[in-house]
Amino acid sequence: MNESGPLLRVVEHPLVSHKVATLRSVETQPEQFRRTCSEITLLTAYEGLRDLATTETTIETPVDTATAQILTQPAPAIIGILRAGLVMVEAILTLVPHARVGHLGMQRDEETHEPSWYYDKLPSRLAEREVIVVDPMLATGGSAVAALDHLKQNGAEKLRLLCIIGCPEGVAAVHGAHPDVPITLAAKDPGLTTNKYITPGLGDAGDRIYGTDK
N or C: which end of the chain has fewer CB within 10 A? Predict the structure, then answer.
């Protein structure tokens, strides 16, 4: 059952449901898979970013002056968990083109299912920015927790997590370690397989995005 609250939002929308079905299908090819991931990210980001901080300002229109709300400076930071998170970073940049972008490279050990680091490049002034962590899948939550740990160690305070598909185990892991971090999902699946893949899920998102599953 979908649920919404201050710490977990599962987006209920016919367009999102339709596009998630496209992602799940084994027939969906990498080009369409990437495009659909971007489209879902755009749709879910409206919900996941609805409470970004804004600042009131006055602008001049061709007719008069108007009071307006703009995103508070410094610009938000989008942190993509490599490699699958890249497709979501690019989508959010179409909404927030002035955002700063960071990358965290973590790879899951196929035996222990724990993440290991291989890359880390973060924007400056993390403590002052709204930080949006993106990764298509929230399975065990290990990569998300490790990323949030690392970002907090580097000063980030205002964090949120945006994923496409998650499961109760991943949500519980993130909120157990970081109860202050809101999560937004396009779909919440029932659980994990014995190999720690989300079921029914969509397989390995990175492999399907980049066509390395065949």
Answer: N
